[in-house]
Amino acid sequence: MSKPPRIDRKSLKNPDEFVTRGRAGLGFLVRHQKRFVPVLLGLGVVVVATYGYDYWSKVQMEKGWQSYNAAIKLPEDQRWEKLKTLHGELKSGRPAFFAAVNLADHYFDEAKKGELKGAAEKSTSAVTSAEWYQRATVEPSLLPAEQQLLQINRGGALEIGKQWDDALSAYQKATDLGGDAKGLALLGVARVHEAKGETPKAVETYEKVATDFGANEYGKMAKNSLRRLKSPLFEAPKS
After folding, report:
1. Residue 92 is part of which domain span?
2. For the segment 190-202, what is each residue's pLDDT rounded down to a tens digit?
3. Are 208 and 182 in contact (CB under 8 A)?
4. Residue 97 falls within a domain, yes or no?
């Protein structure tokens, strides 16, 4: 049987350091409790306000989704105005984001239909579409892929409206985000250069797409455009 550990009796003469400091701390709090009570009350108010705001935000979000779901079920002659009103009321959040995207897509479709018909009003629809895409891009919760597709669509709307510099800027923003749709964004950049009569820049961009995305559809489209631009029959557009 092992012997019990020896006790250093000298150490028993000194109180435990932890207990001593603990008692000192409690004593300090008791003596200065009037100073700490307002601080504790303030912290309590902050905690209650934070949880209250979170609860209020969830309620507002649920109401927003209910309003959005009701709006998209309306007949088309009422739907778009209702979505505009909803976006104006909400301003941010996913329901407001989807309201903006629905409106942007609607006017984009109108612009494309006008382009096919050669209608003069295509420019108005294209500009309106680009404006709603721009409003959608400011949503803080967007993923990079969502932001990229919005910029590509915005560039497409501006391209239909022949606002070349703005379209080029939108496509370039989408390009800078990288990702799976970078090739599509670069095709937009090349088309705008081509439309502006900047054939060397268009060729350079198409060649980049053909090299970097040769295995997918973007690369094939770029190669077709290169063959067209390098054909002896090609005539550059007048700027």
Report:
1. 59-146
2. 999 999 999 999 9
3. no
4. yes
